[in-house]
Design goal:
CATH class: Mainly Alpha
Number of domains: 1
Structural class: mainly alpha
Number of strands: 0
Helix content: over 70%
Shape: elongated
CATH architecture: Up-down Bundle
Length: 139
């Protein structure tokens, strides 16, 4: 399975949000390594850390969206809540598995939450931030 990398198109242009995305990608790749190494104990710890980091990231991002008066802030907050619920459910399922292949499938689903947040969710406010002069447009 291929590891995730921070693609230029995933960068919002806001230093706090982009730094969080980088950390989430790094921990996702660390989880992948533990699965490859069959280190299920460390994998479980990292899965918990992933969900905690995602929760903290969402809080920071939501604060920013409210501060800049993004009109879709409440919708984005609800979107985050749904992602967190799914991520927590997936984390629980992953921690109950000791089969490498099933764990990889579970991990892919969890990694998909991260991609959904960055690609689908966060791009919804990027153009607003550019228009408001909060971030610079990128080519």
């Amino acid at each position: 399975m291929k590891k995730l990398e921070m693609l230029p198109s995933w960068r919002i242009g806001h230093p706090v949000i982009d730094a969080d995305h980088g950390k989430l990608i790094a921990i996702t790749n660390d989880i992948f390594d533990t699965i490859e190494d069959l280190d299920f104990e460390l994998c479980e710890e990292l899965l918990k850390s992933f969900v905690e980091l995602a929760r903290d990231h969402f809080r920071r991002e939501e604060r920013i969206l409210i501060e800049i008066k993004f009109p879709g802030a409440q919708t984005h907050i609800q979107y985050h809540q749904g992602l967190l619920e799914k991520a927590e459910e997936t984390r629980k399922l992953c921690t109950e598995m000791a089969d490498r292949q099933r764990l990889i499938e579970c991990f892919r689903e969890l990694a998909g939450f991260l991609v959904d947040d960055v690609v689908k969710g966060d791009m919804s406010f990027k153009s607003f931030m550019i228009e408001a002069g909060i971030i610079e447009p990128r080519d």
